Amino acid sequence: MIRKPGSLASNLALRMPAEWEPHEATWLSWPHELTDWPGKFSPIPWAFAEIVRHLVETEPVYLIVEDRTAEVRARSTLEKEGAKVESVSFFHIPTDRGWMRDSGPIAVVGTQGASEWARGENSGRVFASPESEAAAPHDTSRSTDLVLLNFAFNGWAKYDDYKKDARVVALANRKLRRTVILPEHKKRRVVLEGGAIDVNGSGTMLTTEECLLGDAQSRNPGYTKYDYAQVFKKYLGVTNVLWLRRGIAGDDTHGHIDDLARFVDPRTVVTAVEEDRREVNYEPLAENLALLRDMKDQEGRRLRVETLPMPRPVYFAGQRLPASYANFYIANRIVLVPTFNDPADRVALNTLASLFPDRDIVPIYSRDLVLGLGTIHCMTQQLPRL
Hints:
The chain is α/β, with parallel strands linked by helices.
């Protein structure tokens, strides 16, 4: 049900929690698009099942499948893999590709009733519930609300087959029945992928100029840094945007931050670096590292900057793939880390173990997964727990 704009609750604050904050569940979408892994699809469902097997030991998994037949196949694979299927909730939603980091719901916490805020002037449209036009709006009397942001999705401004993915949030909410806000700026829907941003939960965000300001795959033509700052402040509670420059080779999103640099606590960023000066990633990653060392958090304090190595270049059928250890995912008690049968695997795992002393570090073999041009963080999306 679309609510018309009304009066804005002046004391509302929306905040996107950091990934390490408690999760209610993790979103995943079961793989089905053969062309995403051309000539190498057969191991992919097993890789997904392995990821689910680890996740359900620490939090529920909300798993999107095409239909009931797909659910039966997924259940069989999960059971053979030894995953606790009773901890998996299935959502029957058709998808084009289903990379949940980019097309799934981005959840934020709002105070004083986010549904009421969403009726505010210029705040964006809100769906109280997509079940029916008679459905009751989400409870606005509570001091906090968990709200789903449904940013527009346009296939990374590159692919034509994205319309099913663009409906995932609305269709998933038939079961969740949360408040859903459609972010708008300058009277149009804002296009934003979850892989383009990383937050520390306290007001600071990492992103890249190549992804959000570049012309190659322009998500929001005409937007400036100031426009994005307004969007991020209003919908994500971000007051301090840290702009890195370029992404890694092979990344068809043109600069997603989750292959480059990630917050691991409110003041610490771990960033990928390339030691080989002959490698194409050397210069852009060195530039990003230099920028980070001069950057500050929302309180004006310098960031602590740690580094992750890059694996040796990964190719398949002559195509350069975006292999990066920065594409890890932080779950409730574990960190899932992509590995590539590379000598640098050990260095990356040890580095992340030192940065997450209270979580188990779980390596996930990803040379097959990365043919889909993404790995673990690209596949997942956290649903925070209030």
